[in-house]
Amino acid sequence: MSDEREKYKNVAYYPGCALEGTGHAYNKSTKAIGKALDLGLEEVKNWNCCGAMEVKNIDPKLQTYLSSRVMSIASNEMDHDVVMAPCNGCYHNLKKAEYELENDQEAVEVVDQISNKAGHETYKAGEIETIHALDWIKKAVGEEELEKKIKGGLKGLKVANYYGCMYTRPRNIYPEKDQGEGSESTLKPHYMDDLLAVAGADNVEFPLKTACCGGAHTLSDSDTSTKLVLNILMAAEASGAEVIATECPTCHTGLEMHQIRAEKMFGKKTNVKIVYFTQLLGMALGLSKRKVGLQENISDSYALMKEKGIA
Amino acid sequence: MMSVGEMAVKLDGELMSASDMLSLGEQTLEHWITARDLEPTDKNKEGFRLLALHRQGAKGDPSFNACRETCRELVYYYNLITLDPEHVETLQRLNMMKLITSHLYYFITGKMEQSQLGEFCCSSKPIRSKLDGQIN
Description:
The complex is a heterodimer. The longest helix of chain A is centred in the first third of the chain and has 18 residues, at about 60-75. Chain A has two domains: about 5-130, Glutathione S-transferase Yfyf (Class Pi), Chain A, domain 2, CATH 1.20.1050.140; about 145-310, Rossmann fold. In chain A, the strands form two sheets. In chain A, strands 2-1-3-4 form a four-stranded parallel beta sheet, with helices on both faces. In chain A, helix 5 (about 90-105) packs across helix 6. Chain A has helices at about 5-10, 25-35, 50-60, 60-75, 90-105, 105-120, 135-140, 140-150, 190-200, 220-240, 250-265, 275-285, 300-310, and strands at about 10-15, 40-45, 80-85, 130, 160, 200-205, 245, 275. Chain A is an alpha/beta fold. Chain B contains six helices and no strands. In chain B, helix 1 runs antiparallel to helix 5 (about 90-115), helix 2 runs antiparallel to helix 4 and helix 3 (about 50-60) runs antiparallel to helix 4 (about 70-85). The chains are: A alpha/beta, B mainly alpha. The interface of A and B includes residues 165, 223 and 228 of A.
């Protein structure tokens, strides 16, 4: 195994708040595929909220601190080189904090001040690498090895891969992306497409793969969120997709909830199923539907998976 | 420039041509820009005014970049359709272009409503809902 692969085989795991609540199935399926692929996940000890939207909007420097604390524990207390965050929001915030600490002296001072007060080592830019669950599978396993481990696969399941808007934006906090062959693209991300294709999925051309789902407005302006989600669902269906694969708990929950709301509010029913990419990958690896938490999804895809002969 | 309401009617109606949908996308962006007291640019970026308008609209508001790829997809579908209008998938592509145009419209009008900008200034949802509640 190459040193590069080895580096990502055992990583610090930062599930974040959503994966302990609405995104529980994402947490469960992420851990399950890690086990199936012989990858090690060590949960960050005593982790805190990354600062999400709420703190970031009120006090961005405090959000930088909150994310830096997670990275400090993973790096300085647990001695990890890599921290993996499956939630787009957490991933984005940790990357943003890294960028701030690299480029903003005031942020460095604020983080140092609060870290001293809180009694832990101050995180310094470059001490740890933050990756997403997609990077994790890509880098620690890769398509070639993954293909060898697929059992049954996804049998031509038509999938629209939905990345959401925080996985690639803003571009400046993701310097490793857009670096040519093998790297992720911020314009047209493809890591999920690549992995699910290896697992046997038939990926459809889906133009709204990075479009906003209105997640941030879901409480303050539900109608706009519903319209945005309905449009995404309709585009997925028009693309021929049977399933939308997700990689963010906020997007996933938004798609599920507003699919129901769209029918109630606008009388528009869509049948496309919403499933985490880790659940699809898990089933392709031969894990049972229950093991990947398919029963926890609001969007009921049991019948479709059964019809397709998946897991 | 069509009003926001007129654009909604268009998007709910019959399938439009690729040029009409590109124009509708441009007009949606013009609303965002004029609502912020700016003059919409007449310049092109990469051959398209839509992309130049998006860049102008995102200045000072990085979150507006959440519709950057939507704009680029709109241009991509416009190119697919206009460069090969006889293609067997043209109807499907037009349908897709309509959904992309709608997404841009919902995203920007949603942002305007949240910011209480433009046509929504007196009918912004939180204020209006509260007033309706008091009147009724």
